[in-house]
Design brief:
Distance between the termini: 27 Å
Number of domains: 1
CATH class: Alpha Beta
Largest sheet: 8 strands, parallel
Radius of gyration: 19 Å
Strand content: 5-15%
Structural class: alpha/beta
CATH architecture: 3-Layer(aba) Sandwich
Bound molecules: zinc ion
Helix content: 25-40%
Order of helices and strands: EHEHHEEEHEEHEHEEHEHEHHH
CATH superfamily: Histone deacetylase domain
């Protein structure tokens, strides 16, 4: 019988990936004073620490990360890019592409990050766990085949998805990216492939620039199998819930994936410095519930979450805890102290202009072929 446990991937060395002293997201140098890079270990450490302090961590099934093989990485990335990362990593580091600083040794860490997601996939496919959360770093959803982007070195979700198709022989997988930024890398990895339905909910025109529109709907045989849901800045739990009810869940019902991968960023949280959305832990909990109810119906509950963005170290751990509580079905009794004030922010309910934006994405459902 398959396990009903929730797997969890973590390795301290993920935190040793050094993004240097950028000023937030900006390379330093006169006139920009050196600072602290926004994608630094602290937010993720605090997420993991709250899991431990709440008592949830010891009830999750630990999954040991492994290094992704070159063959697995090359299913998505170009050999030239792989060589570039190796060379930078063996020296003093540098920029892997667009806003993607990396330090000495980051190649091995990025391999372990992609491999951590693969290990979680392996555990799900083996029936050792029902679902899993891979708290890996560096993140992956902006990385393109030929260059790093937006703090992402290797496309963790793409590499896992391609492994599910190639190694496990699945016919249909889906990705549901709720990071506040467009999952452009994941989109690009499957853009012409009908074996993957890629969905991204994100803040309209945030990052990357000029990316994530509804008209980016897949191409060739993949036409119709990429759905972007760009939401206006200021969207809260009402808009996210409606986007799930009206677009994400119906699309998944039509497509009937055998596995759902969630590039999970918490930067749609109300206080995140790199987003202008209003989500809170209750909102993420609710989205997780909706996804789980569907996954239980269509794919044996197989949900693989891999960590992406989220840059407010005070509030993010509570959003992560809420998601892990839902995935595992275990309540820790720990209340989110930020919940009340975030829930009371104006505009948490679905507003008319947000509903219009969701309607544009809803129209894409007509173009999604049946499974
Ligand atoms: Zn993000």
């Amino acid at each position: 019988m398959n396990s009903d446990k929730t797997g969890f991937v973590w390795h301290e060395i993920y935190m040793w990936h050094n993004t240097g002293n950028y000023a937030g997201v900006m390379p330093y140098g006169n006139p920009v004073q050196p600072g602290t890079h926004v994608e630094n270990p602290e937010t993720k450490r605090r997420f993991r620490n709250l899991l431990e302090v709440s008592g949830l961590l010891k009830q999750l099934q630990p999954i040991a990360a492994r290094e992704a093989t070159e063959e697995e990485i090359l299913r998505f990335h170009t050999p030239e890019y792989l060589e570039k990362i190796k060379t930078l990593s063996a020296t003093c580091g540098g920029d892997a592409g667009v806003f993607t600083p990396m330090g000495s040794g980051s190649y091995e860490i990025a391999r372990l990050s992609a491999g951590g997601v693969l290990a979680a996939l392996d555990a799900i496919m083996a029936g050792e766990v029902k679902n899993a959360y891979a708290l890996v770093r560096p993140p992956g959803h902006h990385a393109l085949a030929h260059e790093g982007m937006g703090f992402c070195l290797f496309g963790n979700a793409v590499i896992a998805g391609k492994h599910a198709l190639a190694h496990y022989g699945l016919d249909r997988i889906a990705t549901v990216d709720w990071d506040v930024h467009h999952g452009n890398g994941t989109q690009s990895g499957f853009y012409d492939d009908p074996r993957a339905l890629t969905i991204s909910l994100h803040q309209d025109c945030c990052f990357p620039p000029d990316s994530g529109y509804t008209h980016e709907n897949g191409e060739g045989e993949g036409e119709g199998f990429n759905i972007n849901i760009p939401l206006p800045a200021g969207s809260g739990v009402g808009a996210y819930g409606a986007a799930f009810d009206r677009v994400v869940i119906p699309a998944l019902k039509t497509y009937q994936p055998q596995l759902i991968i969630v590039p999970s960023g918490f930067d749609a949280g109300a206080y995140d410095p790199l987003g202008r959305m209003q989500m809170h832990s209750g909102g993420y909990r609710s989205l997780t519930k909706k996804l789980m109810a569907l996954a239980d119906d269509i794919c044996g509950g197989r949900i693989l979450m891999c960590h992406e963005g989220g840059y407010n170290g005070d509030t993010l751990p509570f959003m992560g805890l809420a998601v892990l509580e839902e995935l595992s079905g275990i309540s820790t009794g720990v209340d989110d102290p930020f919940m009340e004030i975030m829930a009371g922010l104006g505009g948490q309910q679905l507003l008319p202009h947000q509903s219009e934006a969701i309607a544009s994405a809803e129209a894409l459902l007509k173009k999604l072929p049946n499974a």
